[in-house]
Specification:
By secondary structure, the chain is mainly alpha-helical. The chain contains four helices and no strands. It binds heme C. Heme C binds next to helix 2 and helix 3.
Length: 97
C-alpha cells in the first residue's frame, strides 16, 4: 500500500475515534429541562459546548455575544427566562479556571 493512502487512513481512524469520544462525553444534568433547553438553544449552529470548558465569567460574556448572534441569524431571541436558565446551568457546571 502507498504511504499517502496509509496516512489518510490513519487520519480517518483518528477522526472517527475523536467523534466517538465527543459523543460519549455527555453534558451534565442529562434529561433536565435546563440541559435540554441548552442543547435546543445553543446546539443548533455548533455543537453544544461542554459547560466545563469555560469559567462562569467567560460564559457570562459568551452569552452576551451569542444573544446577538441568535438575533442576527433571525432565530427567535432568548427570552429573559431562557437566558437565566441557560446561564444558571452553565454557571453551575462551569470550569474552575
Ligand atoms: C445563530 C447561531 C448560533 C447560536 C444559536 C448559538 N451560537 Fe454560539 N457561536 C455562533 C457562531 C457563529 C460562533 C463563532 C464565533 C462568533 O461568531 O462569535 C459561535 C461560537 C460560540 C462559542 C465559542 C467561542 C470561542 O471562542 O471558541 C461558544 C462557547 C458559544 N458559541 C456558545 C453559545 C451558547 C452558550 C449559545 C446559547 C445561548 C450559543 N452559542 C448559540 C453561533 C451561534
Amino acid at each position: 500500500m502507498d504511504w499517502s493512502v496509509w496516512r489518510l487512513r490513519s487520519l480517518l481512524v483518528a477522526c472517527l475515534l475523536l467523534a466517538g469520544c465527543q459523543k460519549s462525553q455527555s453534558l451534565p444534568e442529562q434529561g433536565t429541562y435546563a440541559q435540554q433547553l441548552y442543547v435546543e438553544r445553543c446546539g443548533s449552529c455548533h455543537r453544544p459546548y461542554s459547560p466545563r470548558s469555560m469559567t462562569a465569567a467567560m460564559w457570562e460574556m459568551q452569552m452576551e455575544v451569542m444573544r446577538t448572534r441568535i438575533v442576527q441569524a433571525g432565530e427567535s431571541p432568548l427570552t429573559p427566562e431562557q437566558n437565566r436558565i441557560i446561564l444558571d446551568y452553565l454557571r453551575r457546571n462551569a470550569g474552575r479556571q
